[in-house]
What does this fold into?
Amino acid sequence: MAMKFKAWLKTITFYEILVGMKATLKHLLHYRPITLQYPHEKRTLPDSYRGMLALLRYDDGTEKCVGCDLCEAACPSRVIRVISSEVPGEPTKRYAKEYYMDMTRCLFCGLCVDACPVDALGMTREYEWAVYDKRQLLLSKPQLLAIGDRSFPVREKRLELQHPNVAFFNVAFKFMPPKES
Amino acid sequence: MATTTTETVRLTIDGVPVTVPKGTLVIEAARQMGVMIPHFCYHPKLKPDANCRMCLVEIERMPKLQTSCSTPVAEGMVVHTATTVVNEAHKSVLEFILANHPLDCPVCDQGGRCDLQDFSHEYTPTTSRFLEVKRVFPKEYFSALIETQMNRCVQCLRCVRYCDEVMDVKALAPSGRGTMTEIKHFTTHQLDCEFCGGCVQICPVGAITSRLDLYEFRPWMLKRADTVCTYCGDGCHITIQTKGNDLIEVNSAHGAGRNNGDLCARGFFGYHATTHPDRLQSPLLRRNGELVPATWEEALEFVAETCIALKLKHGPDAFAGLIASRCTNEDLYVFQKFMRLVIGTNRIDGSARYGHINGVRALRRVQGTHRWTVAFEDIVGAEVLLLVGTNITETNPITGLKVKEAVKKYNATLLTIEALVPAIGTISNIANLSAHHFSVHPERFGNVVLGLIKAVVEGGLVAQTLTQRAPAYVEAISQTLRAIPWETLESVTGATSQALMEAARAFVAARRAVVLVGQGVLRTPGGFGVATNLLDLLLLTGKHDRPGCGLAPLAEENNDQGAVEMGALAEFLPGPSDLDDRAARERLAGLWKEELPQRPGATLMQILGDARAGNVKALFVVGENPIGSLPRAAQAKEALERLELLVCQELFLTDTARLAHVVLPACSYAEKDGTFTNTEGHVQAVRHAIDPIGESRPDWEILSALSVLMGYPIEYGDAKEILKEIRNLIPGYGLLGPAPATPRSDEAVVERYLREGYAEDVGARYQLTGAGSFDMAQPATSSAESDRRDAGKVKDGLQLTLVVGQTLFHSGKLSTRAKGLMEVQNAGSLGLNPSDADRIGVTDGDRVRLVNQAGEMTTSVRRLDRVPEGMAVFPEHFDEEARRLLTVSVDPVTQVPYCKSAKVRIERL
Ligand code: SF4
Ligand code: SF4
Ligand code: SF4
Ligand code: SF4
Ligand code: SF4
Ligand code: FES
It folds into this structure.
C-alpha cells in the first residue's frame, strides 16, 4: 500500500524529471561560466602538456644536446634536421653545430623527446605560436634554446664522472680525469 | 687459393647436415648455411686469434664450449649454436665487455652498424652485476685522419692483426694489460703509417673511426653507390656514401671487388678531390685574352665553328687529341670516334703513352695479347713472384697486398729487382719480404734481368721444349749474353753471380711464376726492351704458356688498360687492333658506316712537336695535362701556345687548361656512369654517387654535343648505349663477372716471335744499360763509396740521381685536391738515404738545393731508409720545380717520353 502511494507521489510530482534536471537547475541558480574568455583568461596546463618544443641546458649553461641525430630519426614527420660536428677545442666531443625544427609539420607526438638519450628536448607549455609568415616557424638552435631557457628555469645538474655503470658521453670534458704522466 | 683441397667433411649444425671442405672453421661452415655466430675477433682475412670468446658453441662430445672461430670442422661433428648454455655464455661475455663500455652509442660513428650494439640487442645482457667504476682512457691525439676512442675498444686486436698480417705495416700494437689494454701506435708523435683505413674498416666497434667524416652522418642517412676507385690501375671496388650531394665516406665491403674490401690511402681518404671548391662550374671562353665564364651554347658553338673553319683551311690532320686514362671506357671510345669520324684524323694519344704502352706493346709483340694472361688470383696462388721496378706499395698498393698475401700466407718465394733497400719504415716495404732481393739503380733494372737470363741460359735451366722448338732463338740470346762477362754484370748490378744463379733456380723450380713489371721499368729508357726480355725469361724457362704464369705490367692510371682497348692511342683502333690492320678497319667502317681516316696517328711527343712547328692548329685535350706532366725541357708550353684552338675538358683549371681557348667543365668519376678496365683487364662498372658539380657534364656527352654542332652527330642516350656499341666491336666487353677471363697467349704470334721476331733487336735489348755513365751501383763498390765520401766533403756537394715518382698518398695531380690526402702529404720533399743526408750534413726538414745543367730547385729533405744511397726521390705530384731539372728522351719504338730521372748535384742551403 505504502509502495503504491510512493509511486503515485513520484508520478504526480515528476520526480524523475527533477532528478534529471538537478544539475541544470543547480547551475541555473548558481551561475558560473565554463568557457574561458581566452585570451583574457588562460587555463592551467598539466605538467605533461605537449606544447612547443625546446632545447634545454644543464645548470652550468652548457647545451644538453649531443648532436646524436636520434630525434631526427625518430620524428615521423621530418621536422628535425641536425648538423652535428665536433666541439671546437674538445676533441671527439659531439654536439649539434646547427639544429633546425620546421614546426609547421610537427604533430606534437613527443617521439623526439622520448628518443633523446640525454633529455635535451623538452615540451613546454607554450602554445601561442600563431604567425603571419610560416617561415617564422622554422626554428634554429638559438631560438629553441631560448624557448627552453624561458620555459624551464630549473635546470638539470650536469653529470659528473663517474656514476657506476652509466654512459658518460655527455659528461663535460673538464670532468674527465687528466692524463697521468 | 694455393692448395684448394677437394676433400670434404660432413657435420651437423643445429640439426642441419652440411658438407664443407676440410679445414673450414666451424664459424665459416655455419655462415655458409646461414647461421651467424656472433664474433668480434674473428675475421675471414685474419688468422684466428680466439681472444674475445664471443663465438662459443656447444660441440657434442667436447667437454667445454668451443670457440667456433678457431675450431676446424671434423667428420661427424655435431654443433649447437643456440642452446641455453651457449646463450648464457654470449650473455656473460657481453656483460664483461659492457662492464667497461662507455655506451657512447648516441655520439659514436659506429652507432647503427656496430657489432656490439647488434649482439647486445640480440642477447639482451640488460642487467649488469658490475658496480665498479668504468675504465677511462685519457684522450690522446692520434692522427689527422684516424681517430681512436679507446674507451669503446673491445680488445679484439683485429686492427693490430690487420695492420700486420694484411698490410705488413705493423703500425699498431696493444699496450697495457687486461682491461687496460689500449691500442696505440709506436711513436710518441702522431700516427704515421700507410693510412689504408683498414683498421677503421675492420674494427667491429667504434673504437677506430675516420676523422674525415667524424660526426657528419648516421649510417641510415647515407646513400650508397658501388663504383671503382680512380687513383690507380688496381681498380678497387669502393662504395661511396653520400648525404644529399655531399660525399661522406668511402669504404669497401669484405669480399667486394678485386680488392676484396682492402683499400689504400688514396681510395679510402682521397674522395674529397671531386668536390673541391676549385671545380670548374661552367664553361670558360677566352675573350680579350681572359678566360671568362660562358654558357654551354656559346662555348660549344665557338668550338664547332672554329673547328669547321680550321678543317676547311688546313685539313683534318691539323687537329690532334689527347685524353687522360682517368676517363671511362665510354669517354675514351667516344673520344676516338669523334676524332676519327667528326674530325677525320688518327692523331690521338693518351696518358697510357707515359709508360703503360711499353708493357702492352711487349705483350702484343711476343704473345699476341694486350692483357695479362694472369689475374690477381694467380698472383696470390703463385709459387714464385718476380717484381721488377714496381715499388708496388706506393704505385699499386692492392696488387701489393696480393703479393704480400702470396708471400705471407702461402709462402711464395719473392724475387725483387727494385730500387728499394730493405728497411723498417712507416710504410711497408716489399723488399723486406723478398727472398732474393736485388737493389739497383732504376736505370739498371734491365741489367739484373739480363743477369737472371744469363743465369738461366748458362746454368742449363732453359726448358727442353724450347731448345727443340727454337734453337736459333736460344742460341742468339745465349750468344749475346756470353759477350757480357759476369764480372761486368756484377759490377753494374752489385749482385753476385751466385745470388743471380740462386734466384734463377728458384724461379725455374716454381710451377706457377708471375712476373710483375712496374712503372719503374716502363717509364725509364729501355722499358720496352726490359719488358720484352722478361717475356724472354718466361719463354726460356718454359713457363710462358703454363696456367698461372705470365707477365703482368702494372698500369699506373686507373684506365690505362681501357685506353689501349678503346683504341684511344696513336697506334691502335678499338679492340685493340693495329691502325693498319685491314680487316679491323673494314669491320669498324662497317659498324660506324663511315670510312676511317687513312693517315697515320701521332703520339704525344709528335703532336707537341708538330704543334711547335705550327703543323697542328687545333688540339682537344680531355683531362690530360701535358704542361703539368712533362718537364719543361719537353717545351709543351711553347707548343700549346702556338695553337689556334686549344679545347680542354677538365675538372680543374690545370696548367694546360690555363692556356686553352675554351675550357669545358667535365664530370669526375663520382658523377658519371660507365666502366673502367683495371690493370688485369677486368672491366668494372662505374656508377655516379652524386649529381654533377655545377654545370659539368660527362666527357662523352660534351663530345657528342660537339659532334652534333659540327654536323656529324654521334649520339647516345646514356653510357650503357655506348657500352653496347663497344660490345658489338669487342664481344663480351665488360660483361660483369667476379674475375677477368684472362686471355691465352696466341701461339701463332709466339711462334713468329721465336722464328724471327726476336732477331730485330736482340742485340740491342741484351746490352747493359747505364754502364759507366754514373758512379753508382748498389751496393756501392768500395771505390765508388770512397769517391763519393770525398765528393761529399767538397763544397760542391754530392752527385745523385733524382727520381721523380709516384708516392703512396697521391695519384697524379688530382689527389692533391683531396683534403684527406693533403693531411698526410701536402708538399714535396726530397727523400734521401740517411748516409747521403749525413754526407751533406742535413736532417729532416733542412733545405737543400739541387742543380744540374737544366736548372735548379730548392726543397726540404726527408731521410728515408728505403731510398738507396746515391738516389734521391721526389714526389711527382708536387714536381712543379723538380720538372725543371728533368730532360726527355723518347723511346725509338714505342715513342714513350722518358722523363722521370736526372743526374743532379745536391748541396745544403
Ligand atoms: S613532437 Fe613528434 S612530430 Fe614533432 S618534432 Fe618531435 S617527433 Fe617530430
Ligand atoms: S662502439 Fe658500438 S656499442 Fe659502443 S658506443 Fe659505439 S655504437 Fe655504441
Ligand atoms: S690505416 Fe695505418 S694503422 Fe690502420 S691498418 Fe692501415 S696502415 Fe695500419
Ligand atoms: S680498436 Fe677496434 S679492432 Fe682494434 S682491438 Fe679495439 S675493438 Fe678491436
Ligand atoms: S688507388 Fe689503387 S690501390 Fe688504392 S684504392 Fe684506388 S684503385 Fe685501390
Ligand atoms: S670470434 Fe672466436 S674468440 Fe673471438
Remarks:
- Chain A touches chain B at residues 66-70, 73, 84-86, 91-94, 117-118, 161-162, 164-169, 176-180 (CB under 8 Å).
- The two ends of chain A are 104 Å apart (CA to CA).
